[in-house]
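Hi there,

I know you've been waiting on this one. I reran it after we fixed the sequence typo, so this is the corrected version. Both the input and the resulting structure follow.
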Amino acid sequence: MNISLPDELRDFVEEQVKRGYGTSTEYVRELIRKDQDRLRLRALLLAGAGSPPAAPAGATYFKRLRSRLRAGRATGRRG
C-alpha cells in the first residue's frame, strides 16, 4: 500500500519519525492501532449505555471487591 501525502503532512510524519518512531510505516501503524482501540472503546461505551441498569454498587460490593483483590495478591494471581 502506498499513501500520498501533501508536503505539510509528509513533513509532520517525518518529524514524528525523528521523535521516536523507527519509520513512517511504524508511525502509521501506531495511528491505525490507536484508531482501532478508540473504535472498540466507543462500541463498548455504546453497548454499556444501551444495556439495562445494574444494581447499585454499594459499600458491600466494594468490600467484597477489595477482599477478592487481597486474596488474588496473596496467591500471586493478577487480574
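Quick highlight: The mean pLDDT is 92.

Best,
R. S.
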